[in-house]
Write a structure and sequence with these properties.
By secondary structure, the protein is α/β, with parallel strands linked by helices. It is built from 17 helices and twelve strands. β1, α2 and β2 form a beta-alpha-beta unit. The chain is globular, with a radius of gyration of 21 Å. Bound molecules: nicotinamide-adenine-dinucleotide (NAD) and SN-glycerol-3-phosphate. Keywords: NAD, Oxidoreductase.
């Protein structure tokens, strides 16, 4: 009896997942297949390019097979990285030992990459976004749609902005976000993980089959090893994705000091509270439920604090006394620990708003990295400032 129930249950699950897969597979682009490009070819940029290229090859009615990936050109052993990727189908510097699909084409020219694209996926360390977006101005049609996979904020004349909002404001195109518990190398190895894509359907939506909607985004990003949930809360997933990197630096400090799991859990508790508070104060459209219902949120905080690059960099700082930038350079071979810049952006914004004292962990991380405050002071800094909560 129990065995029969199990069998029925398994067959129901299989039936549901086959139905879901076939409903995605039967989508058709009614005008021409959507042309995809990826801007960025780092650790995550290349991984996401692999994911979408696989789906592009599998769904010819929906996506053009060729996916272009913009590569910030550099030489590896006297050869251009683009040439290596296009010949060997491997990004030997930023994603070694992972075979890339043959329909993924590395392109050194930014403008050639976006030419005729229907969907642009931004995936670079966020400190380079402004420069890239400025180069794209005037070269992207207003009906192009975009997804930002970046984690960070833009802080400037307009205050603190989501990176997707920055893209929309500067290029005049709708931009959503993708964020989740996604250490790139695990996704690249096709170990199962989940992610969240958030996207608002814009007012100039041209209709199902002619434009990008939630079904198209699911078809673009969902893989058997990469399960996608598509929602509306762009602000919630973006705030969570940016700020968990700052919390991870705090975890790295206490880990490097040898304080153990309780200390790391304490940092994550305070950090989650500050993430939610930041979202509510500065992006009131974000939903608190997103943080625990979606992969972008608590789940991302957990994976990042367990094994992300920010935690590794901060740990090395604690163990060696190195500066953040030196530790990043030594450990990451050109990759970026985004929390180092994000904590500065957050500090500058909070100072403008006279709200520094309401975010004691974020401020402690900033002071340790930029003003050499002893990391052993973290517990006291959190206590002293927490009275303002
Ligand atoms: N790696 C991950 O596990 C992961 C997972 C999820 C999200 N993210 C986020 O995705 C974004 C991209 O991260 P990544 O891991 O692909 O990048 P990365 O950290 O691997 O950075 C290296 C990339 O930066 C490029 N670069 C270096 N100098 C440049 C310049 N002057 N102009 C433009 N590009 C330059 C390099 O060419 C390379 O492509 C980040 O915001 C990151 O937080 C990363
Ligand atoms: O390696 P990190 O610290 O940049 O984190 C990677 C991802 O953002 C985890 O989801």
């Amino acid at each position: 009896m129990v065995a029969t129930d199990r069998l029925n249950q398994t067959s129901n699950i299989l039936h549901k997942s086959m139905k879901r897969a076939s409903s995605i597979a039967h989508l058709t682009a009614l005008d021409h297949p959507f042309k995809i490009c990826v801007i960025g070819s780092g650790n995550w940029g290349t991984t996401i390019a692999k994911v979408v290229s696989e789906n592009a090859a599998l769904n010819p009615q929906l996506f053009a097979s060729e996916v272009r990936m913009w590569v910030f050109e550099e030489q590896i052993d006297g050869k251009n990285l683009t040439e290596i990727i296009n010949t060997d189908h491997e990004n030997v510097k930023y994603l070694p030992d992972i075979k890339l699909p043959v329909n993924l084409v590395a392109t050194p020219s930014l403008l050639d990459t976006v030419k005729d694209a229907d969907i642009i996926i931004f995936n670079i360390p966020h400190q380079f976004l402004a420069k890239i977006v400025q180069q794209l101005k005037g070269h992207v049609d207003s009906h192009v749609r975009a997804i930002s996979c970046l984690k960070g904020f833009e802080v400037g004349a307009k205050g603190v902005q989501l990176l997707s909002t920055y893209v929309t404001d500067e290029l005049g195109i709708e931009c959503g976000a993708l964020s989740g518990a996604n250490i790139a190398t695990e996704v690249a190895k096709e170990n199962w993980s989940e992610t969240t894509v958030a996207y608002h359907i814009p007012e100039d939506f041209r209709g199902e089959g002619y434009d990008v909607d939630h079904k198209v985004l699911k078809a673009l990003f969902h893989r058997p090893y990469f399960h996608v949930s598509v929602i509306e809360d762009v602000a919630g997933i973006s705030v969570a994705g940016a700020l968990k990197n700052v919390v991870a630096l705090g975890c790295g400090f206490v880990e490097g000091l040898g304080w153990g799991n309780n200390a790391s859990a304490a940092i994550q508790r305070v950090g989650l509270g500050e993430i939610i508070k930041f979202g509510q104060m500065f992006f009131p459209e974000s939903r608190v439920e997103t943080y625990y219902q979606e992969s972008a949120g608590v789940a991302d905080l957990i994976t990042t604090c367990a094994g992300g690059r920010n935690v590794k960099v901060a740990k090395l700082m604690a163990e060696s006394g190195m500066s953040a930038l030196d530790a990043e350079k030594k450990l990451l071979n050109g990759q970026s620990a985004q929390g180092i810049i994000t904590c500065k952006e957050v500090h500058e914004w909070l100072e403008t708003c006279n709200s520094v004292s309401e975010f004691p962990l974020f401020e402690a991380v900033f002071q340790i990295i930029y003003n050499n405050l002893p990391m052993e002071n973290i517990p006291d800094m959190i206590d002293e400032l927490e009275v303002f909560r």
